[in-house]
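In the current project phase, the collection of sequences with tokenised folds has grown. One resulting record follows, to show the layout:
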Amino acid sequence: MKTYFMQGLVYDNIIPEIESLFPEFANDIELKELAAGLPAIYLSFLISYAYNNWDDLSIWSRLATLMNELAQSKNENTKIVFLDFAVDFYRRFEEHRVNVDSFLNSLLPKTKEFIEYRIEFWKKGKF
């Protein structure tokens, strides 16, 4: 049961939310040790998991749910973690020439806009 109250998804709830959306991913004991309870590290491993299972459309749906919840959060730490996650997600797929436009179109308009703005900002800074 989600209990995000007024701020929506907050930093301390990111890992439990990932575990509820991706139980098969979260069952890895080694992952829990490597992530050391830090949502940013957990999310970086989730990117690899998503990439390796990208043909599974249920991954798209669950990932969209997570991204939408992260983007809607009013918690500043959650927004910062989401910003890093969104750019790293996009970079990973771009690096491997996997088009994520269809996935981005499945997000809520505000989430998609949030991600696209940050990606454009990142691209301008590339050398």
